[in-house]
Amino acid sequence: MEQDIDEKVKELQLLEQNLGNLLFQKQTFQLELGEVTSASEELEASKGDVFKIVGNVMIKSSKERLKKELDEKKDLISLRMKSIEKQERALQSHVEELRKTVLKHMK
Questions:
Q1: Mean pLDDT, residues 39-64
Q2: What domains lie within the chain, and their CATH numbers?
Q3: Concatenated DSSP letters of 5-64
Q4: Mean pLDDT, to the nearest integer, of 84-106?
Q5: How confident is the model over 66-83, as pLDDT tens digits?
Q6: For the chain, does the N or the C end have fewer beta carbons within 10 angstroms?
Q7: Rounded CA gap, 69 and 26, in Å?
Q8: What is the DSSP letter of 1?
């Protein structure tokens, strides 16, 4: 019985670590989404030539092409964030169930 609780505690710790990793990924995507949104706003406000940085080189590009690339990137990031949020909800639910089980057996 005690060995079973030890295994559940270890599983709970692992799940909480995984949850922390998911939250870190989510924050990273939120920052990236903010950068892409800011870049889109700057692009809309720009007059004249626009450039894109590729590696260490700035390349002249069309406003429409850059807008399309930024919109696609924004859509991809949003899709990834939705996936992470779905995983986060499922993992959080599992963590709560396991936590209740462990606490119940420890009393």
A1: 93
A2: 2-106 (1.10.287.370)
A3: HHHHHHHHHHHHHHHHHHHHHHHHHHHHHHHHHHHHHHHHH--S-EEEEETTEEEEE-HH
A4: 92
A5: 999 999 999 999 999 999
A6: C
A7: 21
A8: -
